[in-house]
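Reminder to self: keep the SMILES exactly as supplied, no canonicalising. Ligand is NAP.
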Amino acid sequence: MKTKVLVTGSRGQLGSDLIRGLSSRYDVSGIDIEDVDITDSSSVRDVIISYNPRVVIHAAAYTDVDGCESNTGLAMAVNADGTRNIAEVCRDIGTRMIYYSTDYVFDGEKRSAYVESDSPNPQTVYGRSKLEGERALAATMDNYVILRLAWLYGEGGRNFVRTMIKLGYNQQRAMQREEIITPLKVVDDQVGNPTWTVEVVRQTLAVMENNLTGVVHCSSEGETSWYGFAQAIFECLGMKVQIRPCKSDEFPRPAHRPKMSSLANNSLVQEGLNCMCHWKEALEAFLQGNKEKLMP
Ligand SMILES: NC(=O)c1ccc[n+]([C@@H]2O[C@H](COP(=O)([O-])OP(=O)(O)OC[C@H]3O[C@@H](n4cnc5c(N)ncnc54)[C@H](OP(=O)(O)O)[C@@H]3O)[C@@H](O)[C@H]2O)c1
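Structure tokens returned for the bound complex:
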């Protein structure tokens, strides 16, 4: 009999790939906000108990980083209290829990990639709410893993890859119409690890099938800036797009963006479990497999 796994946020960018990636090996079910709002503790209890999973993979979150700045209450309710609600049920029924957290728990001021032992110091409401989620989980139960991710993209949802392709495509159309082109400006003073959801699914499986616990960094190998990431997207797709680097202060946003977002997968490496590949290799595979779907 296959092991029962329950995925929260199953219609989200990562959740939908988790459902696809786990279904051949696990008896996997998914829930999203239409099924249960994770801020409602009694509904969360009823739903998890009715599925009775061996593992809950918690990918539901309020992920609008700028929106969180003006909706602190909602951010805390979903990302912190919602995580606690799930953890309390998992603890009570002896279920293992995997929670996804973020590079935003750090302040971004370090000169090199963050390791698991670095002290969090979030600068945004989103980062604080996700860190509160980590702490709520750790205070509630023992059998958990916190996978910190960064710069996620995938087939579903809004993400940087989709945005760049759309902007690049619009510029190419304007060129064909012989209009005056403004080069696309992309920030080059923020550094991170672009990470494909499918890679995270593969790594989650490896973590789930081994007895890893605690905080674990999980992002692609290698790092780049948003500008470098955009260049690689256009290069992979053979798109000729005029693009130029700029600084973050040219794009003021409600939420502060960390300058350093890179995460080093030290725990995964130490445990011999790191299966994340280089970000460029993953990007090429993603674009090759999804080219038609991604074109506007
Ligand atoms: N995206 C990134 O770059 C990134 C980076 C680091 C870490 N992470 C973490 O990775 C995980 C997955 O991210 P993602 O990009 O896949 O997020 P996503 O696409 O926004 O998916 C999250 C899902 O959770 C649902 N949800 C929101 N509030 C809920 C509630 N109260 N009850 C139940 N479900 C709710 C959302 O529904 P609606 O769409 O209807 O709101 C959505 O379907 C999250 O924990 C996120 O914090 C993401």
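Points to follow up:
The chain is about 45% helix and 15% strand.
The longest helix spans residues 72-93.
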